[in-house]
């Protein structure tokens, strides 16, 4: 399972880009999507994974997580890179998972370069955001994402883990076991997240708030269905990352240590993970 990108939804692309820039994570404008409604900026890493800051540039209908965009929700979905979307669709259908696709998408960069790819979504309406959607490029990947100057050759190397906020932890684990044959997760209790279950060898962790909790994650799950709630960037040296970027004190995570960015706007939705 190779993460391609995490769409980070916000109503004002300039405002969220400015906040990332303040944190030392300067993104680069990526252009307008083929739906002509949404546009985006890219924070690309050395491993060619990226955070996609996405917003609406005009009014109109589209299916790129409009509710998340209009609510400044941050992580709205997550995407894995596959060799071929058709083959991935067949595999998921064989496992009894509903499939929407293959779909054709595009984006035009400011320099006029047209980027094209195939995409597919999986799952029922209830778990469509919990499962990753798949992407396969029809134009060169290097045209879609390059390492951003603000993070290239630095201590942040990519997206380490997508944290999936869920109502029912056991049901979510069973779904991923059926779809992806994941191993038994490593569990722990993490402040502000509740129970966290990180999956060895996979770039995912599940989080469910404690019963009766009124924290940020419980509030998010009241507003949005199960799906990404936080994006953890990868580092081999958390100390070096903290020297370069404004990060809070590190906390214990089931499979390592995490430090979240010092940002009232982002809260616990963006952090850095040093895996054990």
Describe this structure in words.
The structure is a single chain. This protein is of the alpha+beta class and 276 residues long. It folds into two domains: 3-144, 2,3-Dihydroxybiphenyl 1,2-Dioxygenase, domain 1, CATH 3.10.180; 158-275, 2,3-Dihydroxybiphenyl 1,2-Dioxygenase, domain 1, CATH 3.10.180.10. Helices cover 20% and strands 37% of the residues. The chain has seven helices and 17 strands. It has helices spanning 13-22, 66-70, 85-94, 141-144, 169-180, 216-223, 238-244, and strands at 3-9, 28-33, 38-44, 50-56, 74-75, 79-81, 99-108, 114-122, 133-137, 158-165, 186-190, 194-198, 204-208, 227-234, 251-253, 256-260, 270-275. The strands form two sheets. An eight-stranded mixed beta barrel has the order 1-4-3-2-7-8-9-6. Strands 11-12-13-10-14-17-16-15 form an eight-stranded mixed sheet. A hairpin with a 4-residue loop joins strand 2 (28-33) and strand 3. It starts with a strand and ends with a strand. The mean pLDDT is 95. Residues 2-136 form the VOC domain. InterPro entries: Glyas_Bleomycin-R_OHBP_Dase (IPR029068), Glyoxalase-like_dom (IPR025870), VOC_core (IPR037523). It comes from Natrarchaeobaculum sulfurireducens. This is VOC domain-containing protein.
